[in-house]
Here is the input.
Amino acid sequence: MLARPHRLVLGADYRKVVRRGSRCAGASTVTHVVHSFEERAPRFGFIVSKAVGNAVTRNTVRRRLKAVCAEALPDVRPGADVVIRALPSAADATFQELRSEVTRCLARKAAA
Here is the structure.
């Protein structure tokens, strides 16, 4: 679970990251990253639409993405804002597939 300082909560922050951030796409997710020069913890946000599946499926995908980001937290640059959008194929992806895809994108775009 990501603690409160590591979460994006405002819609304006989500919009800023998705519109201005650098993008890394995979088979199941699209990762957007914006770097700020503030000395604060990196923050993560997740977008899992109804196209992914029913509520149970969406929550499972969101929990898996949160777990992957919690593991990758020490490797992410301080001050980075990251939004991960789950694509419909994320519903059928295993945890290991999601982990490899997200960590690859974080290593390319948000590495410390």
User: Anything to note?
Assistant: The radius of gyration is 13 Å.
